[in-house]
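Quick log. Single chain, no ligands specified.
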Amino acid sequence: MSERVAIVTGGTGALGRSVVRKFSDEGLKVYVPVVTLHEFTEVFDKSQTADSVEFKLKRIFGFECNAIDENSVIEFLNNVNSLEKGKIDYLINTVGGISPASNVSELQSTELDKMIDLNFKSAFYFTRETLKVMLKNNFGRIISIGAIAGLNTTPGRFAYSFAKAGVINLMDTVSEELKDKNIRCNTIIPGIIDTPANREWGSPDDIKKWTKPEQISDIIYNFISDEFSSVRSSHIKVYGAY
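-> predicted structure:
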């Protein structure tokens, strides 16, 4: 893995940073698109903390990028592609978010657009641009984060459900289109992830049932390994006890 290059979108989020750290610990070089480099430094620079006593060289790099802006994503990919001389092996799409529940009769078009931009278009832009590099190398692994709502009809969550269903279909479509190009796409379908934001509303009993970000990171790492090189178009349900 020491020669492999990965991009992790949403890499400063609760799940994304877990994926980044897992990949880095395993020797991968990881690029993270971030809103600001200050945010990137706050999350990943431990040189001035107690952790620096056990310092381990980590190859984690950040570039400013607006994940829902097409041109910004293109610029980010061009930068990584140039630095890595045309080599990007893995893309992990973790950017996403959910809006307050709203029945269709009350759903504002602005909220629908927001969910599509954040959950679907971000994954689409990064996937499309990364594929341009992967196709030249006849190799690539892409994993995106879906949602239960993307598989099942969920009242009050149409905007989120629609966007996540799009992500799942995107992964399946690319995987079918490029199955002869050694490019594999899969989707992780988590239940509720044990994040600080979710803990604000979850009870102690609820939290015990949730999936840890580290558990999902381990699964993602396994799925990019050669051991799972034949697996494509899969929906990996990581529900915990949810």
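The chain has a mean pLDDT of 93.
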